[in-house]
Amino acid sequence: MRYVLAATMDPAALAVLPRCFTPDIDLELSRSTAGMKSRLAARAHDIALVDMDILCGGTTTDYETIRQAVHGFRQQHPSVDLIVLARADAIRQAVDAVRAGAGNYLTYPLHPEEVRLVTQKLHESALVRSELDYLRDRLIQGRSGGDEGIVLDTRSPRMREVYDKIRLVAATRSTVLLTGETGTGKSLIARLIHSHSNRHGKRFISVHCGAIPEALVESELFGHEKGAFTGAIRKKPGRFEIAEGGTIFLDEIGTIGPSVQIKLLNVLQDRCFQRVGGETVIRPDVRVVAATNEDLSTLCAQGRFRRDLYYRLNVFPIDIPPLRERKEDILQLAEAFVRRCNPQRSRDIRAIHPDVIDAFMRYDWPGNVRELENIIERACILEGGEVLSPEAFPAEFRGLPHAVRNRALDISLPLEAARRHALDSFEREYLERALATSGGSIKGAAAIAGVTTRQIHKLMTRHSLKKEDFKPGSGRLKK
């Protein structure tokens, strides 16, 4: 971050802003829309802090006007990260601006620590986006389409770790084992590994081992000779031969039987196999990526999976986190699925209702990303307007935000005091739920909330909460 522009008519903000940045940051100040535009045209800025009235050309509460203003700014200055400045009584409009594409918002009066924190976080996010753009460009080469781009957009630290591992292993020949619950996107990750490797110009062959009858798995993988068994009327090459020079993805690897396990072990160990009923030794040049939603080490202990095969598969393990542990990605994924559904279903859906988003964040997503995709597709079919409303979703989603809307409000308090009271209540309830879910673990609660353990300690002190009250067996009810 080198060049920052601040456009505001607030005298106090103009006085505070120079104290918000270190001397190496070149800060420019503007008091009008015309001044902002001329400065943006004269130099490429990294971040622009812009007053809502300057951005929109006057005071407004209309979402469409705000959306057009933000989109217009981003079209003219795509490389500039936008932070909107708003009055304390205009938070709703500031949130609308963020929904429309602004990076974040700040409210008056400005505080140096808050300005520094928000701008630094936005700058760090821009660096991550640049890194992901680079990765996406590399992965897209040789790809004919599909969903790979959807999983690349992430704000989740755990998913960023997954992408780091992809970058490390993709260019090698090492066998990769993908683990994770059903619906987390293991097949898409396998395609990313292939696309990012030097095999991207060759075939990617996907085999769902659990969907093939056990008696046919060996033939499907390794092929068979004519007459090898009843019905084998001609020679058939297996998937390993078809994938020559490329990647074979073995999904649900834990379902294969003992005989196939032995043959697969030979392929991984000796790099050769024979077709069923054949004698010719075939030496394939194939990269193996396997996936499972079961714990293979447990299967080994139960005698259902060969331990030596497990070790051969588990050369480079990558665990894909469930959606409930990466909720910061839910909105981006949902919007991506909406954009994909629009042309497929002849729809023009432009936004998702805030109550739906709130319900999404409260739901545990047992079906993970696949469940989210299916629910979005269903809602797009049912929705007749431009905003995905709660009525287009199953009853369990409509019920969640209802409780939020019906929260008791004390209108005897001034608006600002009532807002602080509501935020304090929400913060305490959220913290209690996080601590209850983590069993009183500070580190676990911090991971759920996406903050540091130090911040969790401060919040617990503020709300007079003790971790011992949330330990298993403490007698405290989980909310």
Structure described in brief:
One of its GO terms (biological process) is regulation of DNA-templated transcription. It holds the Pfam family Sigma54_activat. With 479 residues, the chain is of the alpha/beta class.
Structural account:
With 479 residues, this protein is α/β, with parallel strands linked by helices. It has four domains: 3-129, Rossmann fold (3-Layer(aba) Sandwich), CATH 3.40.50.2300; 153-319, Rossmann fold (3-Layer(aba) Sandwich); 326-405, Helicase, Ruva Protein, domain 3; 415-470, Arc Repressor Mutant, subunit A, CATH 1.10.10. Helix content is 49%, strand content 11%. It has 21 helices and twelve strands. The protein has helices spanning 11-16, 33-42, 52-56, 63-76, 91-100, 112-140, 148-152, 157-170, 186-195, 214-222, 239-242, 258-270, 296-301, 307-313, 330-345, 354-362, 368-382, 395-405, 415-437, 442-449, 453-462; strands spanning 3-7, 26-30, 47-51, 81-86, 104-107, 176-179, 204-208, 247-251, 287-292, 316-319, 351-352, 387-388. The protein has a five-stranded parallel β-sheet, sandwiched between helices. Helix 15 (330-345) crosses helix 17. The chain starts with a strand and ends in a 17-residue tail after the last helix. Keywords: ATP-binding, DNA-binding, Nucleotide-binding, Transcription, Transcription regulation. It holds the Pfam family Sigma54_activat. One of its GO terms (biological process) is regulation of DNA-templated transcription. This is Sigma-54 dependent transcriptional regulator. One of its GO terms (molecular function) is DNA binding.
